[in-house]
Write a structure and sequence with these properties.
Elements lengths: L3 E10 L2 E11 L4 E5 L6 H9 L6 E6 L2 E2 L10 E5 L10 H11 L7 H11 L15 H13 L5 E5 L7 H18 L2 E6 L2 H7 L2 E6 L2 E6 L1 H6 L4 H6 L4 E11 L2 E6 L3 E6 L9 E6 L5 E3 L9 E12 L3 E7 L5 E7 L14 E6 L5 E4 L1
Parallel strand pairs: 3-8, 3-9, 6-7, 7-8
Antiparallel strand pairs: 1-2, 1-4, 4-5, 9-10, 11-12, 11-14, 12-13, 14-20, 15-19, 16-17, 16-19, 17-18
C-alpha cells in the first residue's frame, strides 16, 4: 500500500477546475515531484495534501487513513514555502522551536531536537542568528529544519528554491537530495522548473490543466514522453507531426510536413492516415557540413538560421527547404567561443530510427 494515496481528487473554483480527477500513489521514502506550468494545479494539489484546502471530490489517504477530517495542524505533514515564512523577531533556534512548543514537547527535550535539526541542514552554530543575518540559502535551510524538527511523515515543498540565484539553486538541489536520503522522509516537491525536477526526483508527475499527463522516473519522462505536451514541456524537443504512412517490422513511417517521410522504431499498429508525432531530442541529431558515408535512415539538408552558444554546446536552428525548423545540438570540443557553423551555412542532419520516440495522437 502506498504511503500517500490520492484517489480521484478534484478541486473547482467557480467554473474553473484547478485539479481534475487526479490519482497518484506516492511511496514511503520517495522524492516525488509535481511538475507543470503555472496554473496546472500542482500547488492546489499540494495545499489539499497539507489541509489548507479541501477537495470537492475524491480522497487523500495517508497510511490508509482519510485526511479529510484532520485540520492542517493535526496532520503529520509539514510544508516549506518559497517565501521561507520565518518569524523575523525570532532567532533561528526560536523559529525551529516554534512547532515543538505548539506540539507541547517537554522543554527539556527541545534543545536537543533543535541541535539535531540544525545538524541535518548543515547550520550548526547558527542558532542564535536572526533571519536578517542569513543568506537566502541559509533561510531556506532554516525553514526546512523547522519543518523537519517534528519528524513529519511527509514533507511538502512548494517551489522552495525559486527565489534563489542559479548557482545557489544548484547547491541547494544537491543538499536536498542528500538530506532526503539521510532523513528518509517522503518529499512531495512542487516546481515548474523541468531541470530541477529531473535532477531531484525519484519520480515525476507532469501536470497540465489540472490533469496528470504522465508519472514516471526522470529518465523515462525525458526519453519516452507519453504525450506531445510532455515531450514539449520537458527539455528541448523537435516535434515532427503528420499522418502515418505505413508500419512494418517495428518501423513506423510518418509523413512530416516540410520534411517528408521520417522513420521511427515503434511497436505501433496505428492505421495509415492517423495523426502521430515523433519526438526527437536535439542531441540525438548528427549535424555536419556534408552527409557522411554511414548516414542513418533519416537525413535532410537545411540552412542554419540561428545559433545559441552555451559554453559546452552550441544549439543550431536549421530551416529545411520544405519549411520545417529543426533544432540540433553540437558539443564544443575546444575552448573559447567555438562555432562549427555560421548563420547561412548549408548543413546535413541525420539520425537513426531509434533516436526518435513515437507518440500516438
Amino acid at each position: 500500500m502506498a504511503l500517500l494515496d490520492i484517489q480521484n481528487v478534484s478541486r473547482r473554483f467557480g467554473d474553473f477546475t484547478a485539479v481534475d480527477q487526479v490519482s497518484l500513489a506516492i511511496e514511503a521514502g520517495e522524492f516525488f515531484t509535481l511538475l507543470g506550468p503555472s496554473g496546472c494545479g500542482k500547488t492546489t494539489l499540494l495545499r489539499m495534501i497539507a489541509g489548507f484546502d479541501l477537495p470537492d471530490g475524491g480522497r487523500i489517504l495517508l497510511n490508509g487513513g482519510d485526511l479529510a477530517a484532520l485540520p492542517p495542524e493535526s496532520r503529520p505533514v509539514r510544508t516549506v514555502f518559497q517565501s521561507y515564512a520565518l518569524f523575523p523577531h525570532m532567532t533561528v533556534e526560536g523559529n525551529i522551536a516554534f512547532p515543538l512548543k505548539m506540539a507541547n514537547t517537554p522543554a527539556a527535550r527541545i534543545p536537543g531536537k533543535i541541535e539535531a535539526a540544525l545538524e541535518d541542514v548543515r547550520l550548526t552554530g547558527f542558532g542564535r542568528r536572526y533571519p536578517h543575518e542569513l543568506s537566502g540559502g541559509q533561510k531556506q535551510r532554516v525553514a526546512i529544519a523547522r519543518a523537519l524538527v517534528t519528524h513529519p511523515t511527509v514533507l511538502l515543498l512548494d517551489e522552495p528554491l525559486a527565489a534563489l540565484d542559479a548557482k545557489l539553486r544548484e547547491e541547494m538541489q544537491i543538499e536536498l537530495i542528500n538530506l532526503q536520503k539521510e532523513v528518509g522522509i517522503t518529499f512531495v516537491y512542487v516546481t515548474h522548473d523541468q531541470t530541477e525536477a529531473l535532477a531531484l526526483s525519484h519520480r515525476i508527475a507532469v501536470m497540465n490543466r489540472g490533469r496528470v499527463e504522465q508519472v514516471d522516473e526522470p529518465s523515462k519522462i525525458y526519453g519516452f514522453p507519453a504525450t506531445r505536451f510532455v515531450a514539449d514541456f520537458i527539455g528541448h524537443c523537435n516535434l515532427l507531426s503528420g499522418p502515418v504512412r505505413d508500419h512494418a517490422g517495428g518501423i513506423v513511417t510518418v509523413d512530416v510536413a516540410g520534411l517528408g517521410p521520417v522513420r521511427v522504431a515503434a511497436a505501433s499498429t496505428l492505421a495509415a492516415g492517423r495523426a502521430a508525432t515523433i519526438a526527437l531530442r536535439p542531441e540525438k541529431i548528427r549535424i555536419a557540413a556534408a552527409a557522411p558515408a554511414d548516414t542513418p535512415d533519416n537525413h535532410c539538408g537545411g540552412t542554419v538560421s540561428d545559433l545559441l552558444y552555451m559554453g559546452d554546446v552550441t544549439v543550431y536552428k536549421v530551416d529545411t527547404p520544405g519549411g520545417q525548423k529543426i533544432e540540433a545540438l553540437l558539443a564544443n570540443s575546444a575552448s573559447g567561443r567555438t562555432k562549427f557553423f555560421e548563420v547561412g551555412d548549408t548543413v546535413e542532419m541525420s539520425w537513426p530510427v531509434a533516436a526518435g520516440h513515437f507518440i500516438e495522437e
